Amino acid sequence: MDYRWHWGVLLQPVATGEAATYFDWLLSGLVNTVQLTLLAFSLALAIGTVFGVMRTLPNGVARVLSAAYVSMFRGVPLIVQFFIWFFVVPELLPGRAGDWLKSLPSHAQFLIVSVVSLGVYTGSRICEQVRAGIQARPVGQFHAAFALGLTRAQAYRHILLPVTFRTILGPLTSEFLIISKNSAVASTIGLLELSGEARQLVDYTAQPYESFICVTLAYVGLNFAILRGMRWVRRRTALPGTIGS
Amino acid sequence: MFEMDWQALIDSKDVLLSGMKITLQITVVAILAGLAWGTVLAVFSLSTHRALRIFSQAYVSLFRSIPLVMLLLWFFLIVPQLLKALFSLPSTVDLRLVSALTAYSLVEAAFFCEIIRAGIASLPRGQLQAGYALGMTSRQTMRYVILPQAFRAMVPLALTQCIVIFQDTSLVYVIALGDFFRRVTAIGERDGTIVPILLVAGAAYWAATTVLIAITNGVRMRLEK
After folding, report:
1. Which of B65, B70, B210 has the CB atom closest to A223's CB atom?
2. Residues spanned by the domain of B118
């Protein structure tokens, strides 16, 4: 196995004529990965919270809707969902929305579709955690809220959810890490995030090891940053009186 | 746009079946090899030798911090070169398949290692001491007392992981291996029916997953009895 290492290739200008080096391509891949991860995680948190709460409501329709959402999005592989959002959904959208999406520059299209695919998929996993977190609250907290004259919405907003989020911070951290890794699937619909750039660099430079090593290190670094960030959140939000505070 | 050409799908059933075969092959090999190697890693992580513990820990955290897409690309880069350097291979060997099988087996071992470790950790410490008190060596205690109970404790999580593996096999798309999903998209692109055929593929995966989840729940309920 005689491989010619050539790290200098990363600093060479790219062959397409843009004013950039191959290293700049990797950096823009990192920016896209971080962007996609943060946006998709925010979307997943929002959707997961709404559907997770719905699952705990007395209203049967809300519970069935939430269960159907989870079953549908956990039952189909992520890459299939990416393809469906990319190829199928724009055709289903009412005329003007579909045309608007297709008229966007391709990068914006890829990013929007990726954020939605990844966010809705991960939302179904977060939904289950929010549901379990709420159901693990002692029922007395709910009764106490009602006794104080709070409405159901207020009880969720001020009593149940603030505590629930703190108790499920561990699983949420895992989801954050998983979503950063799952963002690599976006390369299959054409988004040039880290692993998309890794493949593009191989095509242009024929130096696979250099580009793969850089990209792998970037993912490991991203993992580390997320862990550190979530540890900070955990310290800031620890429930007073618990062992973790 | 949404007209499905079912006849074209039926005509391509051999292609689809061979795709399904690859999907199942990767799933089964990844589960079996992952379980075997994952058990070894879990035992390493509880070993009294520091080097083994560090190896197991480093292995698990490395494989868990890299996206599966990237690992597949890595293994498709390394495995074919390694095989060619070591053996004179007949050209009939499907290097994509061998690379994918290697990647999934090694990655899933890291996940199974964590599941088995959690299973072992859930056992009361007295089980170890009881084994020693009966005069068993630490290896015998592991083999006859700890592991059989740990496996039973981890069954629900391990089954869920098997379903995850089944779904994740579709990522071999990135190394152009013809599994079920890759074959389906190829047919869709050929016939210009990508829109309906993706919905069919999604429904097929959903049905398979739903059946697998039902089986998992059945097993879980029997275990809890």
Report:
1. B65
2. 6-224
Whether A47 is in a domain gets the answer yes
> What is the mean pLDDT, run by run of 10 residues, along chain A of 245 residues?
82 85 94 97 98 95 96 96 95 85 90 97 96 92 92 93 92 95 96 94 90 95 95 88 67
Best B3, B66, B160, B217 residue to mutate vs chain A (most A CBs within 10 Å): B66
A154 found inside a domain:
yes
Asked if A81's CB is within 8 angstroms of B173's CB, the reply is no
- Would A5 be classed as within a structural domain? no
Is residue B1 domain-resident? Answer: no
Substitution target from B27, B60, B70 for chain A, most A beta carbons within 10 A: B70
Q: Does A2 fall in a domain?
A: no
Tell whether B132 is covered by a domain: yes
Which pLDDT score is estimated for B2?
A: 63
The CATH number for B216's domain is 1.10.3720.10
In a domain, B202, yes or no: yes
Instruction: Note whether B70 contacts A1, CB cutoff 8 Å.
Output: no
Query: What is the complex's ipTM, to 2 decimals?
Result: 0.90
Indicate whether B82 belongs to any domain: yes
Contacts 24+ apart (CB under 8 A), A111-115: A111/A32, A111/A35, A111/A36, A111/A191, A113/A82, A113/A85, A113/A86, A113/A189, A114/A36, A114/A40, A114/A82, A114/A183, A114/A186, A114/A189, A114/A191, A114/A193, A115/A36, A115/A39, A115/A40, A115/A43
pTM score of the predicted model = 0.91
